[in-house]
Design a protein that fits this description.
By secondary structure, the chain is mainly beta. It has one domain (about 1-160): Sandwich (Immunoglobulin-like), CATH 2.60.40. It contains 2 helices and 10 strands. The strands form 2 sheets. Strands 1, 2, 4, 5 and 8 form a 5-stranded antiparallel sheet that branches. A 5-stranded antiparallel sheet has the order 6-7-3-9-10, with no helix packed on it. Strand 6 and strand 7 (about 100-110) form a beta hairpin. The termini are far apart.
């Protein structure tokens, strides 16, 4: 009987977590003007209702036309920076390129379970290949979790550069 009550409580808690941010979005925002072949795209969280403690996303792109900029350091680091919402919540941005044409990034802090407020959580700078032409499409597959690591329902839109 206690086990059934525990399962019911966990199920209810997870449902509440999912519902709390059912309108949450993690979108690729409007890109800045192209400058010498590069463009910066903000990653924008909205509608989280104070229930989202970490977000991640896979950004897809045509690797023949677009690449992720690096910062010029040795070794070079990807030009992905935390945004004001991530900084205010004490979060870190991590990123990687697990495959050509796929940028995976996360905004979290294992020692900090505070919620991330609405706003820009990261900036990504992309380099456009000379003569790339249009359309240049970025796809977006977002994910989110609450302070206890439970999944939170989130959607997101891509962007055309």
């Amino acid at each position: 009987m206690r086990f059934n009550l525990l399962i019911a409580f966990i199920s209810l808690f997870c449902t509440v977590s999912q519902a709390a941010a059912s309108g949450a979005t993690l979108d690729l925002g409007a890109a800045t003007e192209r400058s010498e072949g590069s463009v910066t795209v903000p990653i924008v969280l909205s509608g989280g209702a104070g229930s989202i403690a970490s977000v991640s996303m896979d950004i897809g792109f045509d690797a023949k036309k677009i690449s992720v900029a690096t910062d010029g350091a040795t070794p070079p680091r990807l030009a992905v920076l935390p945004g004001p919402a991530a900084k205010a919540a004490g979060k870190t941005v991590v990123q990687g390129l697990p495959a050509p044409g796929l940028l995976r990034l996360g905004v979290f802090n294992p020692a900090n379970n505070s919620a991330i407020g609405d706003g820009v959580v990261a900036y990504v700078t992309f380099v456009i290949a000379p003569g790339a032409g249009a359309p240049l499409v970025l796809t977006n597959l977002p994910d989110a979790s609450d302070a206890k690591g439970n999944p939170v329902k989130i959607t997101g839109s891509g962007q055309e550069l």
